[in-house]
Amino acid sequence: MAALRWGRGAAELSRALRAPGHPCTTAKEGILGGLWGPRMNSSASPCEQERLKDWSRVELLEVLEARVRQLQAESVSEVTVKRVEVARVPADGGRAGGILPPTKAQPKVSGGWARKLDQDQQVLQRRQKLLQEKLQVHGQFPAPKYKPKFKFKAKAKGKAKPMATDKPSTKPVATSTATTKPMAIVKPMATDKPSTKPVATATATSITLAAPMVTRSTAVPSSNPKPKAIPMTAPKTVATSTATPKAQAKSTTMSTAEPTVTSMAVPKAKPEAMSTATPKAKHVALAQPSLAERQLVSKQQASKKYRRKGAATETEQDTWEEWVPSQPWATSQKLSGCDTRAPLKLNLEQQAQQQRLQVFLECCLASGHVALAHHMLVSHLARPHKQCLLTQAMYNTVMLGWARKGAYKELVSVLTMMKHSSFTPDLLSYASILQCMGRVDQDVAVIQRCLEQMAQDGLQLEQLFLEETLSNEERAMLLRAVLKAEPNFRPPQPSPQVNTSVLLSEVYAKEGPVSYPRLHLPLETLQAMFQQQLNVELASKVQVESVEKVLSPTQETLATRKTLETLRRTWEAKLRNKLQATKAHLAEATHQGRLTLYPFLCVLPEDELVQMLIQLLFSLPAQGEPFVHVVHRLAVQTFQRHTVQQRQRRGQLQVLEQRYTQYLQLLASDSQMTDPRLPRQHWEALGPPEPLPPQLWPLTELLPLGKLLVEILVQSVQLPSSLAPPQSTSQPVPVLYHVYTFRGVRQIGLLRPHPAFIKLLENAAEPVLIFEATDMPMLCPPLPWTSSQAGGFLLSATKLIRSVEGSVQHLHLLENCPPAELHGALDALTQLGNCAWRVNGRILDLVLEVFHNKGCTRLGVPPPTSEAPRPPVDHLPPNAPPERKAQLRQEVARCLKIAREMHGLRQEALYRLSLAQHLRDRVFWLPHNMDFRGRTYPCPPHFNHLGSDLARSLLEFAQGRPLGPHGLNWLKIHLVNLTGLKKREPLRARLAFADTVMDDILDSADCPMTGRKWWMEAEEPWQTLACCMEVAQAVRSPDPTAYVSHLPVHQDGSCNGLQHYAALGRDSVGAASVNLMPSDEPQDVYSGVAAQVEVFRAQDAQQGVKVAQVLEGFISRKVVKQTVMTVVYGVTVYGGRLQIEKRLRELRDFPQVFVWEASHYLVHLVFKSLQEMFSGTRTIQRWLTQSARLIAQTGSAVEWVTPLGIPIVQPYHQESKLVIRGGLQSITWNSSVDTSQKPNLLKQKNGFPPNFIHSLDSCHMMLTALHCYRKGLTFVSVHDCFWTHACDIPVMNQVCREQFVRLHSQPILEDLSAFLIRRFCPTDSTEPGAGHTHTTKLLETLRSVPQKGDFDLEQVKGSTYFFS
């Protein structure tokens, strides 16, 4: 009967798995009936325990899996129920008597599943036979673990042996008798209490276990108190179980009445009527189930009783006591009785499988398939070779899924499996338990016992409410359960964490003047803009009208559009059908325990997936796109849209709307705030943190998912033969086809649309471009950055650190970093993102005019591909020489390369201009994040201020400020700086030059395309033109000081990398060369290096060096500038030679035959000159390089922490390959961020100096941004180029210099040395050997910090041209 009861519970699981999206019916019956069953302890001897290990590692829940397969297929070989004349309790309680007719089961057989089940049974029988032969050598059989297989053929008869009870029963009991033929050991067992209530008796036959089982016998009243055991050699046994109608946890009940079993009532006056199958027997033997089965049945009964009463009973309280040891998990045992095993070290393949399983479970929860996640957990637990993959997080994931559904029974079963796997519940485990208790209104005694056990485990209740993974609704359910047990409990409020950095003490100081800027928009307008942005992100895509010049549609154009619309509807239907068929196929494989992409296909509705695929189809370029890029892009879009919908499903939109409305009161122009705060501080004060967004799926899931979707698209989308000439066949033609091509020496796969489809698109001339929501600027202020995973867009996940896919080092560093340490970076990013922008409409109109007139390369407006050079069409004769053929191939390749480059540039300009036109007359924002070095970037890729001269000219501040007394002069200086004509002149000379050319400035503003076009000769023509227009309006206004200017004015650092090196080394010579010292005129380091190179060249020319003589008159500032500028960022001799070669080729008079030799010669002279001029800089560079080389040789990537507290690690490792085989093509994803690979020694040592300097210039920029924000300035930056209003330039210059001095007043190199020693020089490495020698060398190198010079940093405050 225990087997039948197991089958019933398994049937409930079966129905849950067959309908993953519906509420699990196991809430009624359950998999493991509850946690509240007595804990069974194994009393086997050590020898017997060793023999237990010889059995295959068959786990408890695999029995359910076997039964599920049987019931799913409805395939039962043979089930019979022996008719027994047993009294049934009538409606009147047995007072009037009465007998019910017996029943018989009606089995059903299904061929496929039956064969599968028979095969499994045959395999198991063979294994058992081998194992039994082995055990027979030792003379006895051990008690097996789990996985008893059910067999429904044999009909066994036998006599039951008696078993003693502690006290004789005085009232009849219900007896369920099963005639079985097990290989069982029947052990005597005494009952705790006499049975005193009438019970029903039922008898069933023909159930045997495929594996030997320990049996348990329960006796009826007898005068003989001595128990007797059935010997192991007994071939047949009648197993009878007894049960009371109201099961108690300590009773001997092991079964419940089944519908197919006949029962009858035993009259109260005739207790001896219980004897049925064996009338001569005075005791009834019950086949004792295995340890796992006993726990399973007892938990089922306890849970059923709980459901009947609706509250926990005293039994449940006792069983919680039994589940929890006196010391937290001190005596925790697996259900099988085995000792707890130490965690195994997994290999790389197992780690990848473990990651896949975790992501699979999380995706099941996200798509609503909690039962499927449970099934997969059970499947892995039932396979010994997969048990090592299970982690605490996996159990917590499934428990959280059940908790959200209020499925208490199922949650308890997962908790039991967790105990079986020797995991101790952690904070997230208890959060799920209590949340579920709150949803089902659990009894207070059970909640109290749970809280007690939580305290015994060393966990504090207050910590639960500080967990960032819980939503507000989940916290409410958790609090509901806690308040029931502890009415006086109050959830703790997160204490504000304070940043202790010396550099940020003034930023977070409460005293002192504070004037945080506000937006120029009222609260009502900002709320309406929030709703617009929310709708955009919910839609996940934006349609933007293209600025490509399109003629009025003709009849042919309209007919083509109609044809495309018809095709679109046909393709949508085919894609939907294909998706459904694919999901059905994957679902079948998933329910068999295989990790598939099924839940990933379920995270989005089918209609949305179809629209994504159609959008991809219509956006592919005519020349095709690399298959890998398409696959990755499609998978990432799926994830991004899934995160948005997940937040919507979890009810976070209402909470976000309420909180954001309160947040806007800090920024709106018409609201009042008594307590000035930074945006992050104000947001945190509005409530607990929102749950963190899910992490992007790993590449092992992203690439197969994207590949599957692309293959569905390729297979489903076809063109009618009538639209695809030549019409030689009536079969449909695929719209997409896969081809291979070569890019250099690499062969890549392309996904290319059919030319007929491209022709349709061209004829239709659809004037719409579609962008993802995350590619668009925001229509409201971004969310403030509050953590490494919260900030930026409203719903779409935004990464704080932009990195290559697959890079996880930065994420781990940020997770382990104290939150307060990141406040400086988070607040700086928030400040940059809060800058409101608008489009410069006058410049946009002019750019569109040039764009439509075939572009202009000199002005940075790319021409259309129709202007690309045509490859030669000459047909070579067969006897053409090989040289001529090679020349023709090179010419064709050159033309194709130029055409591809022109197409890319044209499309980039089209996107930028279309977005600018779309956002004309609107206010928008650019959320920011940073790279691994701390350098900041705007998130929208196509339209931002980090682009080219054209992109920057299209943007201006949405909030203007009056010029004031000095603003107009700064506008003029800025205009001259943009022309590049007076860079080496002092500011007064630049201002005078602006007044001299005022006529040209005004002419450029009035007649930009028809006048003298003075602005076109500038280095930055479009920004120069925008400044000309601003100056013209200002000088023509009645009061220039009151003119409201929106134009950003720039202050650029003078070779900023060398400035940081000179400040680090206190190098006086280098400091003077890069304007760290006050001077009347700006120092030009590039001209100085060019002069020094000319001195070395003249000396070599006198000695007869040919190349030095050829270079006479050709060494200029322009030739050496790029190399000087990039040498500080780690450019090598090879890279510098290429830069100089490019400059020499631009010189028309230079003999091109000497280009290679001259560039090789000059790059060494440049490095030699820099060594002469910046000796301290080169010393620091060598120290950084040598330190990085030694660290990388230890097998670690170089790490450090910036002065602002940002943890940094260099993601350079040996290249690894991820290969996804099958389908259209095998995908090979090359990655250099795989932490399982050794560090790339060359990149680690060459990258450390420039990356370290980049981290310092980012710190300087962030400090400047935060202090400017405190003073009420509008501030944005392009790395070392700072922007603000013209009237605020003097304040920004003062802040910029003060923060540079404060930054470099810190012991930066000394702190770096101390951190690297702590991180990479273990103190316990004292044993001699190669490793010890290397550590000693590394330690000596890190301690030898370069000596500093005598430069006084305070001089920077008085340097006019430090930033100018």
Automatic annotation (TrEMBL):
It is found in: Mitochondrion. Residues 531-834 form the DNA-directed RNA polymerase N-terminal domain. The lineage of its organism: Eukaryota, Metazoa, Chordata, Craniata, Vertebrata. GO terms for biological process: mitochondrial transcription. GO terms for molecular function: DNA-directed RNA polymerase activity; mitochondrial promoter sequence-specific DNA binding. PROSITE patterns: PPR, RNA_POL_PHAGE_1, RNA_POL_PHAGE_2. Residues 238-263 have a biased composition (Polar residues). The gene is Polrmt. GO terms for cellular component: mitochondrial DNA-directed RNA polymerase complex. Residues 157-178, 217-274, 295-325 are annotated as: Disordered. SUPFAM superfamilies: DNA/RNA polymerases (SSF56672). This is DNA-directed RNA polymerase. Keywords: DNA-directed RNA polymerase, Mitochondrion, Nucleotidyltransferase, Transcription, Transferase, Transit peptide. Gene3D superfamilies: 1.10.287.280, 5' to 3' exonuclease, C-terminal subdomain (1.10.150.20), DNA-directed RNA polymerase, N-terminal domain (1.10.1320.10), Tetratricopeptide repeat domain (1.25.40.10). Belongs to the phage and mitochondrial RNA polymerase family. DNA-dependent RNA polymerase catalyzes the transcription of mitochondrial DNA into RNA using the four ribonucleoside triphosphates as substrates. Component of the mitochondrial transcription initiation complex, composed at least of TFB2M, TFAM and POLRMT that is required for basal transcription of mitochondrial DNA. In this complex, TFAM recruits POLRMT to a specific promoter whereas TFB2M induces structural changes in POLRMT to enable promoter opening and trapping of the DNA non-template strand. Has DNA primase activity. DNA-dependent RNA polymerase catalyzes the transcription of DNA into RNA using the four ribonucleoside triphosphates as substrates. PPR repeats lie at residues 391-425.
